[in-house]
């Protein structure tokens, strides 16, 4: 059989059916097997019974290594092929069949933007329903019909695991009254795989002024602002790592000091971070921004739009960079100059961040409610 129903049928007809007799501490229902989610689930599975439902196997907008990761927990994938091309009806039917067999303490949905999440919110017991919230107040509607829909969804949630300050602000604006637990992130980055020796520090960065962007080359990432600004600073170097619909346009309009690498496998990404000095994330909207954590992990001060979800909890909280208005080229230029002038102090603060403690705390945030 093909598609979602076939996937569930084959799952339930194998020896794996025995796990349906277990009572899981967590059932996660999420979009895709993204590496940072899998890292989180793997850690939780060391001490708790975890089952994960991936709605899709892949995405047309993500490279293969985004979903390449060993899973050390029980899971099922509802739909093969591209997530965006799934049959929603078959997906909902498959999910309902699966949930009828699973027993669990908590079910945690990965958002409110898919019919699969609404199926759970509307038809499963509220006392077990939780939301892993990545949307922030920066990019979300807080008035009008869309806000009312979100408020209705939240009324069906016993609790919410939210990433950071802008995400809690969204819950407060939407007048959510349930349990709220801050996780401090959206998942765990590849710390072990990305540990490489950083070159000995020297004064080269002052001469080269090497800036880096890592992410999709898409309109919402505000790449065109970078092109505009770096045209005025030919002695600054900018590297763009990533792929997306704007790649060819960027290659045709960029200046000589801008280099487009395209997609880079995460196993080689650490070296690229270490070849640069300052990270820039100019997005119009960015629910969190795991690349901010990655850049800091590799010692780079961060310049980011104030609409980046991690801006308050990472950049401002640790004092490791500068924020700017994503529609202002002048503010970005000033942020770049300020970061260069304060580079040494910023690097010293970055060196004091305990990333392992942050990861441990994120895992522990989910265990606070599991047996309540």
What labels would you give this structure?
alpha/beta, transferase, disordered N terminus, 372 residues, seven-stranded parallel β-sheet, Rossmann fold, glycosyltransferase, six-stranded parallel β-sheet, glycosyltransferase activity
How would you describe the overall organization of this protein?
GO terms for molecular function: glycosyltransferase activity. Keywords: Glycosyltransferase, Transferase. InterPro entries: Glyco_trans_1, Glycosyltransferase_grp1. The protein has 372 residues and is of the alpha/beta class. It folds into two domains: 3-188 and 357-367, 3-Deoxy-D-manno-octulosonic-acid transferase, N-terminal domain (Rossmann fold, 3-Layer(aba) Sandwich); 204-355, Rossmann fold, CATH 3.40.50.2000. Helix content is 38%, strand content 20%. The chain is built from 15 helices and 13 strands. It has helices at residues 3-12, 35-44, 88-99, 115-123, 144-154, 165-173, 204-208, 223-231, 247-253, 266-274, 290-297, 311-318, 329-341, 343-350, 355-367; strands at residues 23-30, 50-58, 74-82, 103-109, 129-133, 159-162, 179-182, 210-214, 237-241, 258-262, 278-281, 302-305, 321-324. It has a seven-stranded parallel sheet, with helices on both faces. Strands 10-9-8-11-12-13 form a six-stranded parallel sheet, with helices on both faces. The longest helix is centred in the last third of the chain and has 13 residues, at 329-341. The protein is globular, with a radius of gyration of 21 Å. Residues 1-15 have low confidence and may be disordered.
């Amino acid at each position: 059989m093909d598609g979602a129903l076939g996937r569930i049928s084959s799952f339930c007809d194998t020896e794996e059916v025995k796990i349906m007799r277990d009572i899981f501490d967590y059932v996660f229902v999420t979009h895709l097997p993204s590496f940072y989610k899998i890292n989180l689930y793997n850690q939780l599975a060391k001490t708790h019974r975890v089952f994960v439902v991936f709605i899709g196997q892949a995405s047309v907008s993500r490279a293969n290594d985004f979903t390449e990761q060993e899973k050390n927990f029980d899971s099922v994938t509802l739909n093969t092929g591209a997530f965006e091309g799934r049959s929603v009806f078959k997906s909902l039917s498959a999910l309902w069949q699966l949930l009828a067999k699973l027993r669990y303490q908590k079910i945690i949905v990965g958002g409110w933007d898919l019919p699969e999440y609404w199926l759970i919110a509307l038809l499963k017991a509220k006392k077990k329903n939780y939301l892993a919230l990545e949307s922030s107040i920066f990019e979300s509607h807080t008035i009008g019909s869309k806000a009312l829909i979100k408020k209705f969804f939240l009324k069906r949630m016993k609790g919410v695991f939210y990433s950071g300050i802008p995400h809690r602000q969204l819950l407060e604006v939407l007048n959510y009254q349930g349990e709220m637990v801050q996780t401090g992130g959206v998942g765990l980055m590849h710390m072990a795989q990305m540990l490489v020796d950083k070159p000995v520090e020297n004064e080269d960065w002052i001469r080269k002024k090497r800036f880096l962007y890592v992410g999709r080359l898409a309109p919402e990432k505000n790449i065109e602002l970078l092109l505009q600004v770096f045209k005025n600073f030919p002695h600054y170097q900018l590297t763009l790592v990533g792929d997306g619909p704007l790649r060819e346009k960027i290659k045709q309009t960029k200046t000589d000091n801008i280099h487009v690498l395209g997609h880079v496998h995460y196993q080689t990404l650490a070296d690229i971070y270490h070849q640069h000095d300052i990270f820039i994330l100019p997005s119009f909207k960015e629910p969190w921004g795991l690349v901010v954590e990655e850049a800091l992990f590799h010692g780079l001060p961060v310049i980011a739009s104030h609409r980046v979800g991690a801006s308050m909890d990472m950049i401002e909280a640790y004092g490791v960079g500068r924020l700017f208005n994503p529609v202002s080229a002048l503010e970005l230029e000033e942020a770049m100059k300020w970061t260069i002038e304060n580079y040494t102090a910023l690097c010293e603060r970055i060196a004091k961040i305990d990333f392992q403690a942050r990861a441990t705390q994120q895992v522990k945030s989910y265990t606070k409610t599991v047996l309540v």
